[in-house]
Amino acid sequence: MKIHEYQAKHILAKYGASVPRGDVADNPAQAVEIAKSLGGEVCVVKAQIHAGGRGKGGGVKVSKGLDAVEENAKTIIGMQLVTHQTGPVGQKVKRVLVEEGMDIVKELYCSLLVDRGSQTIVFLASTEGGMDIEEVAAKTPEKIIKIFVDPTIGLRPYQAMQIAYGLKVDEVNPKLVRPTANLMTSLYNAFISEDCSLVEINPLVLTGDARVIALDAKMTFDDSALFRHNDVVELRDFDEEDATEVEASQADLSYIKLDGSIGCMVNGAGLAMGTMDIIKEFGGEPANFLDVGGTATQERVATAFRIITSDPNVKCILVNIFGGIVRCDVVAEGIVAAFKQINLQVPVVVRLAGTNAEKAHEVIAGAGMGDKLQMAEGLRNAAEAAVAAIKN
Ligand code: GDP
Ligand code: MN
User: What is the pTM (predicted TM-score) of this model?
Assistant: First the structure.
């Protein structure tokens, strides 16, 4: 789950990270009030959408004086902001963050993420902040330093210092080393306590008055840990998320939309991956990843069918369920009932293996839906039948 910059900064500040003073506004008059309360001559008006690259897209405006704040807030609120992360349609801006302007001496980069390979939390840090870090990684990977933190030990003070020196803040001002190290500790504590999968500060800035400040903040949370962070769940902005993925998550289904034409309904993430691979092997393209989990009841199957077919690209659905704990005949009954209940318009190919698979065959055949709802023997045959169905 993602949140907005202003929300991320609010959380990071609770952990002691320095962020610019500011507040969020949903109209220009409110933006002006915030600018007034900040007192300074220069403010920055920043579009709040989940995607990055707002600066280049015209969503971040340094504003001198209250008139400029009002003008820029007017332009940005309500605009359809297009960045390299939003896709060509862009994202509508509902709010702006109004912050005190910073006297920036240097823009740096730092982020924290889970590194599965080393089973650690890794800090990425670079002196090349502000611009696209992907470009830095591709062209000058030596400019990104990595510090691996064993989560069972935690971030040790010398590692925080390593990052500060790696960012060469001492070359700007030796007094900045300790506050930078402290900021890294704050970021690490927030990352662990809030169960994040990513914390990214780009840019992290050094200012003319010798401060180190998180000028931008991106925070992503591990969905599997959200159950213990009710306060984080409340920050969810459904307007920023794919509507179908939201419906799926509310129904407790793991759904990810893809670009192909064969919808997949599978139990188990590994089996779902295998199913997608086999569809590709037969020359098809999966339209989605969908894991119905261990309980393939009629209700869940119906919801899954509805979600899959809300994608207009879907021309056929492949159901691949292994009956380990669930009985295949019960699943088959659920599929037939759901198929009729929502009056499916696309053909469905079913492969059921495991407990009571033979009975399941009888249930599907007994439904008498012909080619619209057919049972296949084995996953390869099922994938072949699904690919053949979209060619008809
Ligand atoms: P992003 O483009 O979505 O990543 O948005 P950022 O928050 O990173 O802002 C983009 C750029 O705007 C930064 O890299 C800075 O160069 C600039 N910027 C943001 N806030 C300030 C500020 O307070 N003062 C100045 N001078 N520039 C700022
Ligand atoms: Mn940024």
Answer: 0.80
Can you spell out the DSSP letters for 157-215? HHHHHHHHHHTTHHHH-GGGHHHHHHHHHHHHHHHHHTTEEEEEEEEEEEETTS-EEE-
Give residue 121 CA to ligand 2 midpoint distance, Å: 21
Using the atom order of ligand 1, give the atom closest to the CA of residue 56: 2
Fold of 1-20+103-241: D-amino Acid Aminotransferase; Chain A, domain 1 (3.30.470)
d(CA 148, CA 137): 17
Q: 65 falls in which pLDDT band (50, 70, 90)?
A: very high
| Ligand located closest to 200 CA | 2
13 alpha carbon – ligand 2 mean position (Å): 17
Residue 91: nearest ligand to its CA? 1
Q: Helix 269-281 and helix 379-391: axis angle, to 10°?
A: 50
Q: How many CA atoms lie within 13 A of 380 on its CB side?
A: 0
What's the CA-to-centroid distance between 215 and ligand 1, angstroms? 7
Q: Say yes or no: CB of residue 58 within 6 Å of ligand 1.
A: no
User: Where do runs of H (alpha helix) occur along 27-155?
Assistant: 28-38, 66-76, 133-139
For the structural domain made of 242-391, what CATH number should be given? 3.40.50.261
**Which atom of ligand 1 is nearest the CA belonging to 99?**
23
281 contact partners, CB below 8 Å, separation of at least 6: 383
Please identify every residue annotated as catalytic. 109, 200
Q: Which atom of ligand 1 is nearest to the CA of 100?
A: 23
For residues 239 and 218, is the Cβ–Cβ distance under 8 A? Answer: no
What are the pLDDT digits (tens) for 237-269?
989 988 888 888 888 898 998 999 999 999 999
Q: Which two tokens stand for residue 74?
A: 């007017």
Q: Is 200 in the pocket of ligand 1 (CB under 6 A)?
A: no
Q: In this structure, which topology does domain 21-101 adopt according to CATH?
A: Dna Ligase; domain 1 (3.30.1490)
Sequence ranges of the chain with CATH classification 3.30.1490.20: 21-101
Tell me the average pLDDT of the chain: 94
Q: Is 112 a pocket residue for ligand 1 (Cβ < 6 Å)?
A: no
Dist CA 240 CA 226 (whole Å) = 18
- Is residue 254 within 8 Å of 289, Cβ to Cβ? yes
| Residue 118 to residues 100, 146, 147, 191, 381, Cα–Cα distance (Å) | 40, 12, 11, 17, 39
**Closest Cα partner for 289 from 259, 247, 324, 327?**
259
